[in-house]
UniProtKB/TrEMBL annotation:
UniProt xrefs under PROSITE patterns: CYTOCHROME_B5_2
Chain ranges of the Cytochrome b5 heme-binding domain: 9-87
Transmembrane domains' residue ranges: 123-144, 258-276, 296-319
Keywords recorded for this protein, A-Z: Fatty acid biosynthesis, Fatty acid metabolism, Lipid biosynthesis, Lipid metabolism, Membrane, Transmembrane, Transmembrane helix
This protein's pathway: Lipid metabolism; polyunsaturated fatty acid biosynthesis
Identification of the protein by name: Cytochrome b5 heme-binding domain-containing protein
PANTHER family: ACYL-COA (8-3)-DESATURASE, FATTY ACID DESATURASE 2
Gene3D superfamilies from the UniProt entry: Cytochrome b5-like heme/steroid binding domain (3.10.120.10)
CDD domains in alphabetical order: Delta6-FADS-like
Highest rank taxon of the organism: Eukaryota
One GO location term (cellular component): membrane
Amino acid sequence: MSAAEKPPLLQLTWCEIQEKGGRSEERWLVIDRLVYDITHFRWRHPGGSRLIGHYAGQDATDAFKAFHIDSQLVRRYLRPLLIGELGPQEPSQEPSKDRSLVEDFRRLREVVEGLGLLGPRPLFFAGMLLHILALDVAAWLILWLWGPSWVPFIVTAILLGTVQAQAGWLQHDFGHLSVFGTSRWNHLAHRFVIGHLKGAPASWWNHLHFQHHAKPNCYRKDPDVNLHPLLFTLGATLSFELGTQKKKYMPYQHQHKYFFLLGPPALIPVYFQWYIFYFVTKRRQWQDLAWMMSFYIRFTLCYLPLLGLPSFIALFFLVRVLESHWFVWVTQMNHIPMHIDRDQNKDWVTMQLEATCNVEQSLFNDWFTGHLNFQIEHHLFPTMPRHNYYAVAPLVRSFCKKHGLSYQNKSLYTAFADIIRSLKSSGEIWMDAYLHK
């Protein structure tokens, strides 16, 4: 059938599309007023079925533009899924969303693209990689030159912990496709950094992290808040709900205290350390497993001959504990103190701003956090190279001021302290509802 003979697209309403949401057998979503049936495609979606499924029954336009660096290429895969379009009487945004805010943000994105702020500086990322490799070599040389006494041992552990943290921020850059102009090269570099330098699978990171960006702090959609209610109760709304249901899996009124035991020191060495192997074997991600094993083989060959088995094991887990502290405090300071609830299908900008906050800019904060102190800018433009966050930040602040949106910017100490304060507050909300509602 020629293009001229193709039947006209179905004219659909937002009500009809919303009926094809997460609990429907059929799954539809909207991108630029066009309606796509993702019922079967979601199982083949490179980002995973859950990621694209989180937008079933919703407008996914801004999320689509945020995640794909070559939208024209991706649209070719969408063509067979096209089943209709919004009727002429239907607004481009869902009726519950602020039209002026949504359209203003899309114009802001065009400005950002026009200024070249989505383009990377390769030398910046080369420098990041070189400084990680230099620290890695220095850690080994210290033990080789001065032997396995306490001081060289501790210095080596600190340097290796720094390597792991900084490699974590660098793999995050590659994972977000923000270094190279093509997905293929970003994915290859991502596997090298997260697999060979850190010993973790790229597929596992992609599976979890893109869901987090798609629906940050949305319970049942953001894996980062899945610790509710098993270990912690998070957010005022969910904590009140849990309390009124008389559910108690932990002594939540003390969670701001036991966070210091179950959070920073335990997440990576206790939970992630075994789960990543379970993940790759269950999903048969053999390429990721090979990259991971290259890390463990290299680490063993470098340090087992210098330390002997007991000290070698001690070094490995000490490094993981240091890395875990660094990772947890930095990644949670931007999200746990913010609004946490079920998905309310808010517009892209409002959803991201309610779930994220910034930490003050400084050379140390930029390095220490891998520029995740600019969490708001990162969430609004996830493929933007991190060295451009500072340049787009004034535009985002101006946008927020115009639309009356809260743009939170804290000191590093305040951001860390707010993790504990928010856990204490949500624990108290749960306790009050549990006892009195």
